[in-house]
Amino acid sequence: MKKRFSIIIGLVVLLTFIISGCMNLNISDVINNDTSETDFSGSESYLPSFKELSNRKFNNDELVVGYEAGANVEEIIAENFKGATIEREIDKLNAVLLKLDTDIMDVEKAFEILKGKKIEGIRYVEPNYTDREIPVIKSTDSNIIQKETGSSTLNQVEEGYPDYKEHQYALDLIGAETAWEKATGAGVTVGLLDTGTDGTHPDLEGQLVEGYDPYEDTIINPEIDYDSDGHGTHTAGIIAAKNDEKGIVGLAPDAKIMPIRIFNPGYIGDYAVAAGIVWAVDNGADVLSNSWGGGGYSNILKDAFDYALTNDVVVVASSGNDTTDQFWHYPSAYTGIIGVAASNAVDEITYFSSRGEYVSVAAPGNNVISSIPVRLAGSEGVEGEPYAYWAGTSMACPYVSALAALIKEEYPDANVYQIRKMIEEGAVDIDEDGYDTAAGYGRISSASLDLDPNVYEAGALAVLATSKRNHDMDLAGVNVTLENKETGKRYYGKTNDSAYELFAGIEPGDYEVIIGGPEYLYYNAPNLRMEEELGYVTETTVAAINYEDLIDPIINDIPRIEQEFETTEFELTLGTVDTFGGTLTISLINIFQETMTNFNLLSESATSTNLLAAIDEKGHDIYWYFLTYQYEQADGEDDISIYVEGEVSMNGYPIPVFCEVTPDSTIGFIDEYGGAGLWWTVY
Q1: Predicted confidence band at 157 (pLDDT cuts at 50, 70, 90)?
Q2: Smaller CB count within 10 Å for the chain: N or C?
Q3: Taking each helix axis from N to C terminus, what angle separates 393-410 and 231-240, rounded to the nearest 10 degrees?
């Protein structure tokens, strides 16, 4: 730990020198600089814009910070995030939401400063992302019933709304009547993370329990209309509309809905959603239904859903309406979550349903009739009633959530892994034979209720990423993919700031392990360039373990594989066409100013050197190195202008580099930005 701390201090000092732009200072002056009073607000960006590179939407005045248990988070924030205040805290996740003073530091500036800086006690720092969506296609065709059934006549009842049950083709496909002989969802609560729900709808009156609005931090009255859009009422009806021969009926008609409003009407941000997940788990949710998603990886959401899974709460999420085959859709791509594709009335995958190895199963999601808020009946309802036909993986997801509720009632001791496997194994194979990226294991059915949960044993694997030359440094931000060699099912993850990713609740069996990174955009990755990323493929066998060991896992007790990262090439070719009379010395130094190698570059000449060999010859085990130049003028040499250019070959990739020596700049750095001072990372 002492060695790591020394490296960090040295790096921070050098970064201060770089940001200040004092390229004509002596290197020894840099090491002695005091960084305690650095004014971050005035620093110029020397890295590519975080906002441009990430292509994500987020609140520019907020940061999500995950801290280690026992850390003094207030002290850490005060020392490392100038002007920031703690706005909210989720102690169950060891995470806080910071409010930034944008006159001093916004998100983009914070990431430029934090890049490569290891802060003791901090697990991760990320923006509060706001780019998740609800995947739904609303029908405006009032004749859809006639198109599907050949008749425009609805079953009328003496009082109340018409009976739409015969138009719920999904119930017949899934085998609802057969399922209800065993379970109806009684005693099971489904946390519905959505737009809120209309508790005044006749099909949902009495079907809701108290919910939570994490953005407003308020309790939701189950007897009012708290739906900001209509989406949450539609998904709620699919799950738990009453079976009273009026309106529609949910697949789990005796389950209860716990509304957690996370769209109002737009997405409220990952941090507030994580707070909503924790609240739902702590207040009795047995299943979490998530008809939303998109964007990229989020540490705070991963922590929140892991909190749910380790508390035996089943998590279901829609796969998205992007049509394309992808791997980045979250939350459905998190390990342990049941990702749901959308199928139609003839058991085909819909054109809009996203494909990907994260898909577990499919469920009906095309032209699904369900409840909408009563206030929207006149403008959006079928024949002016508070029901509408919508399509999307948003509609498919709640059918799977409802099936999970039925299984939970029938098998109350089944764990989340067993319930997921029962849903997958009981599915009807559609699309391609066996597991495929469009339908997963198939379209869900009531046959899942006939399976024995005790036959399903979970496996787990921890993947560690280390540096061959320096095992003391953590490789965070490494992307890891596990592919089951028998089924092709994939699980995705990213190493945390302790250099590992835990895949808990996966099928035992043989896996191909694909490892790549560290992802240079990740704030705590040690590298600044994509060319410094490395990739590996290996194989491993995952064995079944005691499920209780996954409830509060101790990483050292989980089977693991360790991948050593090793830089394979670091060579420099440099030259100049200019004439000069002094001595131009090119050096490779580490952050302690120790010289690995140096040489004199002569007038009108070029030279090449193997920098990696020089590092290995010295026996150094440090990550970061700098290419520097220093020019000593000849007697009587006043006016100098030397342009030096060449390339660094890093792991097979050429990187053009250059610098310019002038009377005002006789010492400085060599890199692709002409002397910005970016370090070179060697594993």
Answers
A1: very low
A2: N
A3: 30
Q: Which residue ranges make up each domain of the chain? A: 39-129, 159-455, 459-565, 570-681
**Spatial distance between the Cα atoms of 376 and 58, rounded to a whole number of angstroms:** 31
User: What whole-number distance in Å separates Cα of residue 637 and Cα of residue 618?
Assistant: 36
Which H helix or E strand runs over 53? Answer: helix 50-54
What is the band of 223 on the pLDDT scale with cuts at 50, 70, 90? very high
Among residues 361, 260, 369, which one has the least CA distance to residue 319? 361
**Which of the two residues, 158 and 658, has the higher pLDDT score?**
658
Provide the pLDDT for residue 176.
97
Strands (E), 83-199: 85-90, 95-99, 122-129, 137-138, 189-194
Q: Is cis: bond before 331, omega within 30 of 0?
A: yes
d(CA 618, CA 296): 41
- Predicted confidence band at 36 (pLDDT cuts at 50, 70, 90)? very low
Catalytic choice (319, 394, 445, 467): 394
Q: Which helix (H) or strand (E) holds 290?
A: strand 287-290
1: pLDDT strictly greater than 70: no
3-class DSSP state of 393: helix
Instruction: Please tell me the class of the 570-681 domain.
Output: mainly beta
Residue in the block written with tokens 């194994």: 425
In degrees and rounded to multiples of 5, residue 585 shows phi and psi of: -105, 125
Residue 231 designated active-site: yes
CATH of 159-455, one of 3.40.30.10, 3.40.50.200, 3.40.50.720, 1.10.580.10: 3.40.50.200
620 is catalytic: no
Nearest to 491 by CA among 481, 499, 478: 481
Decide whether 459-565 matches 570-681 in CATH topology: yes
C-alpha neighbours within 13 Å on the C-beta side of residue 174: 33
Residue 20 pLDDT greater than 70, yes or no = no
Distance CA 647, CA 2 (A): 35
List C-alpha distances in Å: 79 to 36, 271, 399: 9, 22, 49
Contact 606, 575 (CB under 8 A): yes
pTM: 0.84
In the chain, the N- to C-terminal Cα span, in Å, equals 18
Q: What is the dihedral of CA 392, 409, 165, 442, to 10 degrees?
A: 40
Strands 95-99 and 85-90: antiparallel
pLDDT at residue 167 is higher than 80: yes
Residues 6+ apart with CB under 8 A from 551: 310, 312
Q: Cite the beta strand spans of 81-160 per DSSP E.
A: 85-90, 95-99, 122-129, 137-138
pLDDT for 105: 87
d(C-alpha 142, C-alpha 236), whole Å: 22
39-129: CATH superfamily: Peptidase S8 propeptide/proteinase inhibitor I9 (3.30.70.80)
Query: Annotated catalytic residue: which of 194, 229, 322, 474?
Result: 194
Residues 6+ apart with CB under 8 A from 397: 235, 289, 290, 291, 316, 317, 318, 340, 363, 365
Structure tokens at 123: 């697990």
